[in-house]
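User: Structure please.
Assistant: Input sequence and predicted structure:
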Amino acid sequence: MFRSSNTLLRSSRWCSAKALIPRPALRPFSGTTLRCNETKPGEFARTDPNITIKDRDMPSGGSVRGVRVKRTLGRFSMEGKVAVVTGGASGLGYVMTQALVESGADAAIVDLNHEGAIKAAVSLSKHFHDVNPNAERVPTITAHSADVSNPSSVRDAIAEILRTHNHIDALVTSAGFTENFKAEDYPYDRMQKLWGVNVNGTYLCAVEIAKHMIERKSGGSMVFIGSMSGSIVNIPQPQAPYNASKAAVRHLASSMAVEWATHGIRVNCISPGYMLTALTKKILEEKPDLKAKWTSLIPQGRMGNPEDLMGAVVFLASDASLYVNGADLRVDGGYTVT
């Protein structure tokens, strides 16, 4: 049974975690290793063969450091807004939460790993203090535990967020995972779990928050995190159910965008390409040929870094994209257009 509990972080209060709830892990690719020692970054992406781009350093597992730009278009501000980010305890979800917080939003991190969510909230709050020591207002960041594939768990988590924040203006659905099995060998129970988190989880969170937005008559923005895998077939790794789940997420965003447009709710999708998260980097260290194959297919000649999604998520979550609805923003270095 879902236990209602959240962690509220302010400048005068820090808290420690009590329980660790494991979340599904990415299973390393186990297929045949390709021999591609002769390939170069971007070689097979129809770009100039004389141009190569070296990978940037992998960011640390903590917050992304950078110069805070004070002069920018006002519509990009998230001041006064509350953003819910599922899967925000780590990886891409963590970095996108940071982007929203640095843009002024209060944030509610929802994750199966409650201890991880608490640690992420503490870390993001501390980072904001470090880069904005004289800020007039400090964003409120809360941590919540939920299984996004479970309807009652999602309802309880959203209700808890509303009790704490009073309203919700934006949703980012970053909870999800992938596994690599040949289609004929994929365990059915694992496929059901993957679909439950990636597709059902997106649907359940979106519907529950849409009910609030419709009742409040406030409108809002939803950003579903899909994948370029929803538009193309990745090689060499076999992952048919994952690809199908992300195609479903992309079209779910389009369908809900049309259905909820009259309520002022915009629904868009971000489809990342290959991203160098800490987990992906570890896998590629063990399979350098796989990384060479992937980068050879990317026109920009490198994999993406998590912070490459920061601008995209703020754009779609903020008023800067008020007339953008039902779009799929691909952040993939040009992979899907070659």
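The chain has eight helices and eight strands.
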